[in-house]
Amino acid sequence: MAICSLLQLVIALSTFISSTRTCDAFSIQEASVSDFQIAFKKNLLTSRELVEFYLGEIRELNPNLKGVIEVNPDALLEAEKADKERQANSSASFPHLHGIPVLLKDLIATKDKLNTTAGSFALLGSVVPRDAAVVLKLRQAGAVILGKASLSEWANFRSLSAPSGWSSRGGQGKNPYVLSADPCGSSSGSAISVAANMVAISLGTETDGSILCPASFNAVVGIKPTVGLTSRSGVIPISPRQDTVGPICRSVADAVYVLETIAGYDSNDANATKVASKYIPSGGYTQFLRINGLVGKRLGIVRNPFFSFINDSEVSLHFEQHFKTLRQRGAILVDDLEVPNISVILNSTLSGEATALLAEFKLSINAYLEDLVISPVRSLADIIAFNQNFSDLEMLDELGQVIFLAAEATNGIGMDETKAILSLEKLSRDGLEKLMRDHKLDAVVTPSPFCAPVLAIGGYPGITVPAAYDSNGVPRGICFGGLKGSEPKLIEIAYGFEQATKIRKPPTFLL
Predict the structure, then answer these.
(1) What's the pLDDT tens digit per position in 35-80?
(2) Which of 202, 210, 239, 423 is catalytic?
């Protein structure tokens, strides 16, 4: 007990010391993108100072939290470039993310000195052909690429027994609120790092829950966009039918600034982004950051079975209070709803999701690997062989690669896979779409991340916002989900809820 108490004291002291390591007139801890831009304009802060601060936080906290897998050796140079651009034209209006450090999940390719490895030694030293499309958009906006975030290895699509947030390269990611608690994955490092103030902005990816879950468990905001709204080119894939790239930040506003920056058409992901780009509203997404965004919104409370998964009376009480707040802020609540065929949707074998994902993964990962300029592995079969040859590496032997083996056994999109995909489409039409249509809903409301499969199989968007802390101090989020292209409504709802409740607080580093 004495050792544990001492360790907790050391973490708390290092956090206190780092929080005082700010510019004289500006505190960086918990600051938002708007705060940073005002500080830049008033010469209270430079991008270089901001990057230096975050690099210091990473040195202090990351040995325990393991949220960052690698830092960009050129981050300070990128920050200095942004500073010079502002100095050269002080009266200009710059993009929201200009000069702001961004951490990328280690699935998102960067054509620079950083590795892109999915947390695996199998891809260490590989060379990508180009920046991922979302990275190019960030660079064009003047953002600073701070580094790569840790993750559940191979986006949690390697083994059924792998601990959430663990990778062979990055180690075991820790929840900054309760270090022994699940940080959730697969975008664990992106959420851990933002929650612990090692960065303000990060990108995650989601196939089924990988943004919504870590954002929920680490008291941050995560946006899972409509599939195709953000390009997946240059992103290590699982499924082109379900994969999406989205922001993880400490506030809804910051997440919306990122979404607005990275959304849009990309010729390297033409089919999906062309269809989804029609959903992008004229004038962008920031116009929907409205304090009165809840007024008149019809919200469907989906209780069964999601609220039975909470298992914590304090969290349940918080949610009941939140429903009162939603009503007080002008929302119309339709309670006690259930998604048709929900038991089938939540069972990936019965729904067909598992069948479809295995085949899609093999096809997609092989195509990604073949496109690399340099790579130690060129196919899923090569990755499996690599893991077998290096089974002496920490934890690899116990974790196994049962999902990889099952995927390798597939042979393209055949009769079974086609049947599975058609089943998923029908479950979506007869499930969430029917529920929202029948009750004329703007969004459904559930505890995060339990609704993830419902949103995943249909390519639907969702936003999770901090909502509660359980009896052990572990955060829990609330999820607002909707149909394809409903991001404007979801942003209004999520921002209205956030501003009415302001649940998020800095991490406690409890043991």
Answers:
(1) 999 999 999 999 999 999 999 999 999 999 999 999 999 999 999 9
(2) 210
| Nearest-angstrom CA–CA distance, 142 and 233 | 20
**CB-CB contact of 503 with 477 (8 Å):** no
* Domain range summary for the chain, segments of one domain joined by +: 2-297+344-418+445-501
Residue position matching structure tokens 């956090």: 15
Alpha-carbon dihedral 188, 75, 50, 96, rounded to 10 degrees: -80
Is 105 an annotated catalytic residue?
A: yes
Half-sphere exposure (Cβ direction) of 43: Cα atoms closer than 13 Å: 4
The domain defined by 2-297+344-418+445-501 folds into Amidase signature (AS) enzymes (3.90.1300)
pLDDT tens, residue by residue, 201-231: 999 999 999 999 999 999 999 999 999 999 9
Q: Given 150, 167, 186, 486, which residue is catalytic?
A: 186
At 399, the pLDDT band (50, 70, 90 cuts) reads: low
> For residue 25, what pLDDT is reported?
63
User: What pTM value is reported for the model?
Assistant: 0.95
Q: Which tokens is 274 given?
A: 């062309």
Residue 210 known to be catalytic = yes
Which residue's structure tokens are 């702001």?
Answer: 100
